[in-house]
């Protein structure tokens, strides 16, 4: 459907295709999922913030992951459950841009955070004697500040370029607003925005993959050479869960973004991968890190009981 660019105040997201009998169960499931995500991730944030014993580099970096997860879930779920209940997939242009910005901020933020966490584990396992010298509190705070500043600026530039164009279409072929889908609504030459999108995708996904590959290759080598079975087991457990979380996000996000550039990719598959990025990492991250990290698990339990 086409429209005059000056009159486009609303856009239409792809239909959910829910039969009437599934509307209320889907609404309840979506609402519960969102509440669980917010509660579990908030519990991790609160636990790390309130426990002085956890004010160490690994946990100061980790606290950013649930914050980012809450950001992404908040960008996605409220609009989803509202549209399920009302069976109305119309969303205002401003709300669509806000949703897309929050979701992209979450995705790129998680990649950056997981990359820095991998570097932290690399120093801890491969250079343990230098760990306290390198990973000082001031250094970690500066890294965290740079992560969020870089993340915000990169996404702000991306959407500033996208918003330069007039919107002349109203149908978004996706379940939520995102920059590739939003670009398809614009008319005119959007090559600059398109090239910039490709550039930051390569830098974020490719750069984070290189960091993970290098650090984990070094960690694996150190673990193999380590004669202490307990230390080797602990390192594999910690890094194994981290690697799984990273690969799930990396593969799904890369496929979702790249698939927008190929017409023959199944829209259903693209949507499924796109939605999985916003459901599984925010849902599983606090469980994985909370259960696998003994200190965090104990403190989470104490925080939950005391509150």
From TrEMBL:
SUPFAM superfamilies: Family A G protein-coupled receptor-like. GO terms for cellular component: plasma membrane. It comes from the Eukaryota. Keywords: Cell membrane, Disulfide bond, G-protein coupled receptor, Glycoprotein, Membrane, Olfaction, Receptor, Sensory transduction, Transducer, Transmembrane, Transmembrane helix. PROSITE patterns: G_PROTEIN_RECEP_F1_1 (PS00237), G_PROTEIN_RECEP_F1_2 (PS50262). It is a multi-pass membrane protein. Signal peptide: none annotated. It is found in: Cell membrane. This is Olfactory receptor. It comes from Poecilia latipinna. Its main location: membrane. Residues 40-289 form the G-protein coupled receptors family 1 profile domain. One of its GO terms (molecular function) is odorant binding. Belongs to the G-protein coupled receptor 1 family. Gene3D superfamilies: Rhodopsin 7-helix transmembrane proteins (1.20.1070.10).
């Amino acid at each position: 459907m086409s429209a005059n660019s000056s009159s486009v105040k609303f856009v239409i997201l792809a239909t959910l295709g829910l039969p009437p009998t599934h509307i209320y169960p889907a609404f309840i499931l979506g609402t519960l999922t969102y509440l669980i995500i917010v509660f579990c991730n908030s519990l991790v944030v609160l636990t790390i913030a309130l426990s002085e014993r956890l004010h160490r580099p690994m946990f100061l970096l980790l606290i950013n992951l649930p914050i980012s997860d809450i950001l992404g879930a908040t960008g996605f779920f409220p609009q989803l459950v509202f549209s399920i209940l009302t069976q109305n997939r119309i969303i205002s242009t401003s709300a669509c841009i806000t949703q897309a910005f929050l979701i992209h901020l979450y995705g790129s933020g998680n990649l950056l955070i997981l990359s820095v966490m991998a570097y932290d584990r690399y120093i801890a396992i491969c250079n343990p004697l230098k760990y306290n010298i390198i990973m000082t509190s001031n250094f970690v705070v500066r890294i965290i500040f740079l992560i969020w500043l870089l993340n915000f600026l990169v996404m702000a530039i991306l959407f500033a370029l996208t918003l330069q164009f007039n919107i002349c279409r109203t149908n978004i072929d996706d379940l939520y607003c995102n920059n590739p889908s939003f670009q398809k609504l614009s008319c005119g030459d959007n090559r600059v925005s398109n090239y910039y999108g490709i550039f930051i995708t390569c830098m974020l996904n490719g750069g984070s993959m290189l960091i993970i590959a290098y650090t984990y290759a070094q960690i694996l080598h150190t673990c193999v050479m380590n004669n202490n079975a307990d230390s080797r087991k602990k390192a594999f457990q910690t890094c194994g869960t981290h690697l799984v979380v990273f690969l799930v996000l990396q593969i799904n996000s890369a496929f979702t973004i790249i698939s927008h550039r190929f017409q023959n990719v199944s829209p259903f598959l693209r949507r499924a991968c796109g939605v999985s990025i916003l459901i599984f990492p925010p849902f599983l991250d606090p469980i994985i890190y909370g259960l696998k990290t003994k200190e965090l698990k104990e403190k989470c339990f104490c925080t939950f009981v005391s509150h």
